[in-house]
Every structure is written in structure tokens, then in C-alpha cells.
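Late entry, written up from scratch paper. The run itself happened at the end of the previous shift, but nothing got recorded in the book at the time, so transcribing now.
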Amino acid sequence: MRILLFVLSMFCALAHSQQTAQNLFGQYRNALYQIKIIELESGNKSSIGSGFQIDALGNLVTNYHVVSEYVYNPDKYRIEYLAHDGSEGQLQLVDVDVVNDLALIRKVALSEQESAFPIALSLPVQGSAIYSLGNPHDLGMIVVPGTFNGLKKNSFYQRIHFTGSINPGMSGGPVVNELGEVMGVNVATAGNQIGFLIPLAKIKGLLSSQNAAVLENEQLKPRIQEQLLANQNKLFSLLDNHHWQTSELGEAMVPSKITDFISCWGGSNTSDKEALYLSVENRCQLDEQIYLHNGLRTGGLELEFEWLDGKSLSEHRFYNFYSQSITGAGAGNNATKTDVTNFRCQQDKVTNINGVTNKTVFCLRAYKEFDQLYDVLFVAATLDHSQQGLISHYTLAGVSKESALVFTQKFMDAIAWQ
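Output as recorded:
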């Protein structure tokens, strides 16, 4: 009997979900659009996404990454929409929120009847049914039922965890409750029915620009730099004011838990019976980054500590191995010469507040489009032991010089001998 009741309840829930999806499709299809980035020279689309209208003034919300090609090359592209009935029109860029991957765009010309999605007043209860809408693969509008699992835990860049399929082309589409009210925006998928949404609070922040003038081309990148600087100031102020927990690594004490949103892993080569030295590692990173354009992400942070014990090696041989380990460090993001300058480095010998002496290499490379932002590469190697040593390494992406120097001081002073 219990099995029968369970099956009936599941059937009723599925039927209700399908009915709600059909209602949403019929009620809001006029307010859901495919967003197209058109390459001017060829006249063909370069990329597509989704977007949704939020008022009678022709304002639409989409992802920043959907329109990023236009932001970086406004003289090469234009933004257009395609409606469910096949009608098309041009769009203008009103504002961006690059940190939260949102953009506000506006129709150049309005029709006699404009449809819009209502915005929810609050997020639903965890476990509630919600519905993701979008235009994947040029297939037209689809509705994907799913589950609201609350805000993603231990995350600096706030996201909603959504159980449902977010497919390519659905980026920028709305996610609504059963009343059709927008409470999130499609942004990413991790596969296996795991999706992530930009939450309601970030959408409401963007909507403060509903009545703003369209951004001029020369205003686009200064607007992004302003947002990136504000975001990294918030991040590094938090890191500087937070107590860094440490743990043992070889004969050293190193940071092991900086904040809840920076995850750490460990490893060693103890299972390698032929290893000539002992290597024990502790690696930490901020898992989320900010999308600027295809090929460039920023806002990342990585830390790595490696304890090396080469007592079975001669001092000369260990020194050579130790030196090679230092030069193996690399940048934390894959920026190209189009986006950044070459690294400029300076070497130093530093003794921290705990009496640990390091040879350090501090490197900066500048962002060509953002004159106050830099990538940072830092490597330090202890000099207090002849056949043992600690290599400390971090990379930062898209920070100011001031934030980098403050972080470096805290990073170095967090290291101690047991």
C-alpha cells in the first residue's frame, strides 16, 4: 500500500510539474528571447544565449558572458534578439555586473504590446520546484523543471544550487517559481543535473540601472574595472581580517584553512618507494573566477606549500633539485599577450616575524585593458636547512598592487617552524 501511495504521489507531482511548465510556456514565451551577437563583417551570429524582458520599457536581463564579445569589441559586433514568433530587433547595452555575470540590455524599438516577467519578492523554500527557461541550440524556447536547493555553501560568489539540466544556449535565461516570478538566472552547469543560478538579490542589484542611459563604448571597460576593483577590495579585506588557521607540514607550520570558501587538499609521495626525497604538499584555491571574455578569467587565488626532505641526497644535489622546484611555479590563469604584459619580477631575502628566512621572487604583470589591475606570482623558498626546505607559492589574478602587497605580508608571516 505504501509503495502504491508513493507511486501515486510521484505521478501527481510529475503531472503538476508538467502542467506548470505548460502554463509558463504559454504565459511568458513573449517575454523570453534568444540573444545573438552578430559579427558585423559577415552579418552572421558569432554566439547565442538567452535573455528575458523585465519591464514595458524594453529592458532585458542576460548573462554578461553572453554579450562579452560586444563589450570587448563594440566596433566589431552588435547585439540582437530573436523572439518566439521569429521577429528580430537590435539591442543596446545599458549596464553590466561582471562580478555576478549579469548584463542589462534594452530594445532599440518597442512594439505596441511588450510582455515582461515579474520579479519574485523572495527566494522559495528549499526543495521547492522551480523552472529554468531558455533557448538552447537554436531549438526555440524550452522549460526545464528542477529543484531549488538553496544557496551554494562555502562560496564567495553567491550562486543557487539547482537540480536540473542547464543546456548550452540557456545562459541568461530566467529561472522562475511556480507563479512565473523570476528568482534566478541560468549561468553554469556542472553536469549530472547540477546547475548554478545567479540569485534574486544580484538581479535586483542590476535592476537599479533600469532607467539608466545606455553605456557608451568608451564607458564599458572603465565600468568593468570599477566593479573588479570593488570586488577584489572586498575579498582581500576579508582575507586580511580573517584569522588563518595553520597545520603541520613537515617541520613547518603553514596556512591550512584561510576561509570557508577557499578549499584545501593535501598529498605526498610516500607511496613511491623509489623516491629519493620526501614531498608533502598542501594546496588551497578559490574555486570560482570571473569571466571577462573567452580565454580570460580573473579573480582567482591559489596557494601551494611543499615540504621537501632530501636527507638521502647530498647537499649539492638537494640544492639543485630545490632550485628546479622553485622555477616550476606558474601563473594561475591563462591570459595571453593580448590581455597582459610580461611578468616583471624582483628577488629578495626576507625573514618573517617568526624568524623563518626565505629567498623570495615577487612578479607582477599588468592588464592592458585595466590599468589598475595585475596578476601576481609569488614564490618563496626557506634557507634555514641544508637538506630540507619549504617552498611557498601563490598566484592572484586581477588585483591592485596595494592588495597584493598586503596579502604577501600576511602570507609570509603565516609560516613558522614547529
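The chain has a mean pLDDT of 89.
(Scratch paper discarded after transcription.)
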